[in-house]
Write a structure and sequence with these properties.
- The complex is a heterodimer of chains A (about 110) and B (about 120).
- By secondary structure, chain A is mostly beta strands.
- Helices cover about 0% and strands about 50% of the residues of chain A.
- Chain A is built from no helices and eleven strands.
- In chain A, the strands form two sheets. In chain A, strands 2, 4, 5, 6, 9, 10 and 11 form a seven-stranded mixed β-sheet that branches.
- In chain B, strands 2, 5, 6, 10, 11 and 12 form a six-stranded mixed β-sheet that branches. Chain B has a four-stranded antiparallel β-sheet with strand order 3-9-8-7, with no helix packed on it.
- With about 120 residues, chain B is mainly beta.
- Chain B is globular and about 45 Å long.
- In chain B, a hairpin with a 4-residue loop joins strand 8 and strand 9.
- Chain B is about 0% helix and about 55% strand.
- The chains are: A mainly beta (about 110), B mainly beta (about 120).
- Chains A and B meet through strand 4, strand 5, strand 9 and strand 10 of A and strand 6 and strand 11 of B.
Chain lengths: ~110, ~120
């Protein structure tokens, strides 16, 4: 069990650029979640995969956001045409059936 | 929609003393999970303790215990014999057990400072 891995740890980009984050869940965890955490707040749910199927998306996930989980393994979260308000920590968590979610270290996004 | 409220933005405790962090939640469901997660500065969020709503017995994990009051929708965390390494943000979270994703709904967190 190597834990949930997220890359990159930090991303600094100019407003309007596209960014992509990667999450590698604990192997054989069938459920994968993305959350967003802004300063001074708790994490907020963005989207959920069970295996390769994206089963739920939050209202927070605007059209500029897209997530994939090809083959039910790693997942990517892409933000197009980034805006200042996208600055946040993006957390990934994986879960095995009815067990607790395990979190990665997160990717901190800063928009200049 | 479920909501989780942590009314204490910050708490402090002396090393070796006991501290209690508060959490209330709102739900219309009868079965669910409640969690406390710890997030040290710039580090990974880790699970401290969890409680299943159908269990009346309060969960305990070493120095960490909860006071689960289902009727009052209250779920407090007690940390005994506080250690410097307990300093962190603590998040209370709710998770449904059936139907759709099992996404976590978090409170805003309580920042715990442990004084030597």
């Amino acid at each position: 069990d190597t834990g949930v891995s997220q890359n990159p740890r930090h991303k600094i980009t100019k407003r309007g650029q596209n960014v992509t984050f990667r999450c590698d869940p604990i192997s054989e965890h069938n459920r994968l979640y993305w959350y967003r955490q802004t300063l001074g707040q708790g994490p907020e749910f963005l989207t959920y995969f069970q295996n390769e199927a994206q089963l739920e998306k939050s209202r927070l996930l605007s059209d500029r956001f897209s997530a994939e989980r090809p083959k039910g393994s790693f997942s990517t979260l892409e933000i197009q045409r980034t805006e200042q308000g996208d600055s946040a920590m993006y957390l990934c968590a994986s879960q095995d059936n009815n067990q607790p979610q395990h979190f990665g270290d997160g990717t901190r996004l800063s928009i200049l | 929609a479920q909501t989780v409220t942590q009314s204490q933005p910050e708490m402090s405790v002396q090393e070796a003393e006991t501290v209690t962090l508060s959490c209330t939640y709102d739900t219309s469901e009868s079965d669910y999970y409640l969690f406390w997660y710890k997030q040290p500065p710039s580090r990974q969020m880790i699970l401290v303790i969890r409680q299943e709503a159908y269990k009346q017995q309060n969960a305990t994990e070493n120095r960490f215990s909860v006071n689960f009051q289902k009727a009052a929708k209250s779920f407090s965390l007690k940390i005994s014999d506080s250690q410097l390494g307990d300093a962190a943000m603590y998040f209370c979270a709710y998770r449904r057990t059936q139907g759709g994703s099992e996404k976590l709904v978090f409170g805003k967190g309580t920042k715990l400072t442990v004084n030597p």
